[in-house]
Amino acid sequence: MTTFSGKVALVTGSTSGIGLGIARAFAARGAHVLLNGFGNVEAALADVRGAASEPDARVLHHPADMSRPSEVDAMMRYADDVFGGVDILVNNAGIQHVAPVEAFAPERWDAVLAINLTSAFHTMRLALPRMRDKGWGRIVNVASVHGLVASAYKAAYVAAKHGLVGLTKVVALETARTNITCNAICPGWVLTPLVQAQVEARAASSHLALETARDELLSEKQPSGQFVTPEQLAELVVFLSSDAAAQVRGVAWTMDGAWTAQ
Question: Are residue 30 and residue 133 in the same domain, yes or no?
């Protein structure tokens, strides 16, 4: 099994869902882990600490609001001060807002772009100098199938995720002659709390059973009829951070139940 003993993994948006699964996977492989996010922080810390495979591995949390560049800067300085820098950066923080373009509130557009795209720019620009000093680094940006294809009513999310895929390629080119890699993963439907809320809203509005609402949601986009799991995505991130993936650079790797194969 790939180990990351002594490495430091920062996962943004990691107190639940995909990010928590990724953080848990790195702890299980010996890494120090810095969590970030809101919600039940103590439960997330206990979860990841419980997965840690090395007794000396530290699991800490920073409460940076990823929409605020000054707080992102503070988080990266904290990682430098406490851990000596970030070796593995996973940009996972994200929010969603759904509305037609003509009704899309400008402040919601700004918020989605700030968290889903601009925060990744800031973490990467601040992490890269220390990675270059160390001569090693891994960056994985959690994009989406919506970084490759579009869906109606998700203008800001689709724009941000397409932008994140493009930014990933730029950083991959700029680090191509180094031992730093930068890649994106593009999940389809994953049963996170955010998606569960969408299932419940569909069930309530259409007077459907939860199972029926879930099946309808999947059937519209994801031919496999199954959700991707956070654990599956975590294993993909672990692979992209391993030596085996040293020449995987600038990809937008789908895990989407054949959504983008259509």
Answer: yes
Q: Using the predicted structure, report yes or no on whether residue 195 has a pLDDT greater than 70.
A: yes
- Residues 244, 162, 220, 103, CA torsion sign: positive
pTM above 0.85, yes or no: yes
Q: State the DSSP code for 13.
A: S
Annotated active-site residue 78? The verdict is no
Query: What are the pLDDT digits (tens) for 118-140?
Result: 999 999 999 999 999 999 999 99
With b for 16 or more beta-carbon neighbours within 10 A and e for fewer, the 175-201 pattern comes to beeeebbbbbbbbbbbbbeebeebbee
Domain enclosing residue 168, as ranges: 8-188+229-255
The answer to whether 64 and 75 are in contact (CB under 8 A) is: yes
**Catalytic hit among 109, 157, 227, 259:** 157
Measured distance CA(202)–CA(196) in Å, rounded: 10
Q: Which residue reads 């090395």 in tokens? A: 54
Are residues 172 and 195 both part of a single domain?
no
The DSSP letter of residue 35 is E
Helix (H) or strand (E) holding 32: strand 32-36
